[in-house]
Q: What sequence folds into this?
């Protein structure tokens, strides 16, 4: 039995596991397919096997009935679920994810860790936190801490900062946008104000990009409304699986291509980053508006408050348009480890909590 602690970011769409290594540095533990983050998706197979992660996410597109995603939105609620004739709760579904994350991390590193710190949104109340803790316990884990995600992010970024600083954490994930103002000093973090939109996230960017690819394919293939591929399930499944990857490509490159097939039509469809940014500018604008609002709330509490650092967290903050639009609005935001910062901070916190 190891005394080490995993930090777990149990996300709405993706989860991550981190560990403080022997050099005292936080480090992400990759999953068995070598990814830093694992989709928080559970798929219930016919033969009774439960599949978690990328494979579950892929299968979900074509077989949504037997899959469960976004369960975090129901944590702490009375929300019974049924899959393949068995009953589940938000806690028991989350437990399946946690169990997989930990057993996977342990087998990757030949470890035997069962102590964890799990992060939750800053707006989670007692009931939601309790449900999250219970999920850990159902998974057979010893939950040594439940801490807010922005606090974990702040710890991972400024744990060694001695001077008091006011931080704004801008966390744009897969299905939610959260922004938090915190005061941080030598590892002590206090939440000053929180705001966000629980229904705004990477999935909205995916939807916009899907629409562009679909329209362009129809145009290139000369299809009209009488022969609309969007009614073809197989076609749409293929498109949806490819769109999120294309979006990630657009973070790295100026354009992304998808090969789309429908009936006898086969087209390479290309979308540029510029086109994608234009189609989603209204979404970025919403995050800016909420950012302004949270600063106002914090200033109402602490007149004269100024933000020292704006920190970009969450997978969707990787998109270059986020930093540039924030800069245009007068917020000079810094890149961080994005979708990995929260898990790393939880690991640092967990290590400090040990006797
Ligand atoms: P959660 O909201 O579950 O905490 P994350 O912070 O991991 O999730 O963010 C997940 C979102 O980030 C997804 O919508 C994913 O497509 C998006 N994402 C991850 N990497 C990139 C990237 N390189 N470029 C654009 N979006 C990304
Ligand atoms: Mg998150």
A:
């Amino acid at each position: 039995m190891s005394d080490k602690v995993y930090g777990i970011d149990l996300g709405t769409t993706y989860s991550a596991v981190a560990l403080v290594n022997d050099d005292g540095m936080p480090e992400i533990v990759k999953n068995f397919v070598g990814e830093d983050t694992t989709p928080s998706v559970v798929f219930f197979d016919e033969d009774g096997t439960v599949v978690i992660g990328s494979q579950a996410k892929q299968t979900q597109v074509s077989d949504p009935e037997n899959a469960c995603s976004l369960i975090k939105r129901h944590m702490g609620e009375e929300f019974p679920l049924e899959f393949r004739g068995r009953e589940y709760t938000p806690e028991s579904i989350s437990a399946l994810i946690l169990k997989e994350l930990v057993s996977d991390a342990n087998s990757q590193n030949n470890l035997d860790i069962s102590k964890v710190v799990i992060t939750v949104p800053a707006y989670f109340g007692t009931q939601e936190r309790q449900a999250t803790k219970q999920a850990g316990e159902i998974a057979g884990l010893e939950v040594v801490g439940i801490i807010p995600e922005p606090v974990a992010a702040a710890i991972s970024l400024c744990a060694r900062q001695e001077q008091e600083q006011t931080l704004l954490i801008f966390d744009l994930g897969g299905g939610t946008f959260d922004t938090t103002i915190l005061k941080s000093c030598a590892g002590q973090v206090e939440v000053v104000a929180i705001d966000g939109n629980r229904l705004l996230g990477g999935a909205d960017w995916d939807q916009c990009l899907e629409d562009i690819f679909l329209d362009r394919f129809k145009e290139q293939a000369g299809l009209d409304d009488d022969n609309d591929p969007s009614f073809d399930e197989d076609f749409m499944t293929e498109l949806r699986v490819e769109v999120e990857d294309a979006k990630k490509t657009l973070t790295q490159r100026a354009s992304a291509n998808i090969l789309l097939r429908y009936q006898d039509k086969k087209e390479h469809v290309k979308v540029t980053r510029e086109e994608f940014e234009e189609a989603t500018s209204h979404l970025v604008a919403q995050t800016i508006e909420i950012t302004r609002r949270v600063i106002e709330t914090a200033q109402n509490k602490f007149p004269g408050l100024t933000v020292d650092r704006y920190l970009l967290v969450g997978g969707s903050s990787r998109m270059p348009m986020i930093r540039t639009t924030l800069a245009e609005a007068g917020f000079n935001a810094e890149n961080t480890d994005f979708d990995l910062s929260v898990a790393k901070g939880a690991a640092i916190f967990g290590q400090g909590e040990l006797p």
